[in-house]
Amino acid sequence: MKKVALVTFHTALSIGAQLQAFALQEAIRTNGYDCQIINYTPTTLNTKSRLTLSRRIYAEISNFFFSQKINNLNARFNDWKSERLRCTEMIPTFSQLKEKADLYEIFVCGSDQIWRNPSLGYYFLDFVPDSASRIAYAPSFGNINFDEKSREAIKEYLNRFDFLSVRETDGAQFAANIVGRDIPQVLDPTLLWTAKFWRQFALDVGKKLPKKYLLVFSIQDTITCLKVAKTISSRLGIPLIFIDSARRLIWHPLLKNFFDVGPAEFLTLVDRADFIVTSSFHGTAFAVNFGKRFLTICRKGLENVNSRIVTLADILNMSDRLISPDEVIPRSVFDELCPETHVRLKRERERCQNILKESLLLTSPQR
């Protein structure tokens, strides 16, 4: 069995990051490969440093007052990682990373916004020996407004790949222009799997849930999500349940805030929801995958940031379920997802499964 090394975001306390890492790992394994996630994090990748001083102070205060929930959150993510992700042992240094690379014949970098910073060559597989194959499945640039220096660096990285695919349409076009060849746009790996697959890994949230409820999954624009969700829940006559990942509303005395759930508990909350309001790409992806009525809030004036959601909506014929914060809620979102959306998702899933399979076969050493 050929060994495949997977490079992606897998350490963050992010539901979407954890689910996409597991999805791609399992998709590679299903094709008959021994897949391991490289357990290395570049020293320059420090998420805390990107936070403002006020946000860091707020985080420390909320950590103090909600310490038990924070402990629950960490435990749930640690359980998911240890039980679901097939990681190598911790690799602390770049020199050890290069030594470890000699053990693998194929390297896959995949999904999430791993290509948003060209200075982090690790996510472009800069440590991989020339004798190994390089595959990109569904990485995202996040924002394609790079300066000339960054474009040149990206071009050098991409020209070393044996197979390229990108998650967003604009990202695929951007990469194609740089390397001078067609690059397919593909689905996020979480959508390579059906709702039936995901239900195997769902866990109880530890609290009694209403028979019907509206789930809010917020990673930004939290107040807008709450405002929109209140309007929809009032019309539907069902209560709200909140997953407030950014912890903007954890002080709200009347909200059922499940910000301490992990990936497995998230799957349960999505599966049982009657309606979903989200500002998250993966919130959108799982809503449509589980066949839920939903509405996604897109960040106004940030077209590149929204491109991953817009791309998915265009492909699956559900653009009416995306609105900016100041738009009126469309009546159509109260209807069930149209049959065409399910047909397109099935077709796209099969197409992208084949692309991944063919990329592994094309780049495999003699089997």
How would you explain this protein's 3D organization?
- The structure is a single chain.
- This protein folds into 2 domains: 206 residues, 3-Deoxy-D-manno-octulosonic-acid transferase, N-terminal domain (Rossmann fold); 142 residues, Rossmann fold (3-Layer(aba) Sandwich).
- It has 367 residues and is α/β, with parallel strands linked by helices.
- The strands form 2 sheets. The protein has a 5-stranded parallel beta sheet with strand order 2-1-3-4-5, with helices on one face.
- Helix 11 links the parallel strand 9 and strand 10.
- The protein has 12 helices and 10 strands.
- The radius of gyration is 20 Å and the shape is globular.
Write a concise synopsis of the structure shown:
With 367 residues, this protein is of the alpha/beta class.
Q: Spell the H/E element sequence.
A: EHEHHHEEHEHHEHEHEHEHEH
Strand order in space, largest sheet: 2-1-3-4-5
Secondary structure tally: strands:
10
Instruction: For the record, give the distance between the C-alpha atoms at the N and C termini, rounded to a whole number.
Output: 8 Å
CATH architecture of the largest domain: 3-Layer(aba) Sandwich
Shape: globular
Q: Helix count? A: 12
**Which secondary-structure class do the elements indicate?**
alpha/beta
Q: Tell me the helix content.
A: 40-55%
Tally the structural domains. Answer: 2
Relative strand content: 5-15%
Q: How many strands, what sense, and barrel or not for the largest sheet? A: 5 strands, parallel
Low-confidence stretches: none
Q: Report Rg.
A: 20 Å
